[in-house]
Amino acid sequence: MENQTERDILTIEKEIDEAIESEDYEKLNTLLDEREKLLPKLTENELREIYQRDQHRMKVLEEKMKEFKETAIKMETGKKMVQSYFQTEDKGQEIDRHG
């Protein structure tokens, strides 16, 4: 039974890393819930190893979040530029019609 639990946790850990890499956060949440059920069965050493891997994962997730924020800012800036362009175009058409 001990080996089965260890293999399961290693499989889950691998899938957690894959979910982070592929940005499948729904699957990540499911895997974390699944892993949580196994934690009480693990040794102190195994728990430390998981904690260390989680510290690295947090850094990866923070970097991805930073990238998402930068992308969102760029998209918002682009949206404002497009809106500004169309407002300018509308004003130009108005002047042509009246002028």
From TrEMBL:
Keywords: Coiled coil. Residues 44-71 form a coiled coil. It comes from the Bacteria. This is Flagellar protein FliT. The keyword Coiled coil applies. InterPro entries: TM0693-like_sf (IPR037285). SUPFAM superfamilies: TM0693-like.
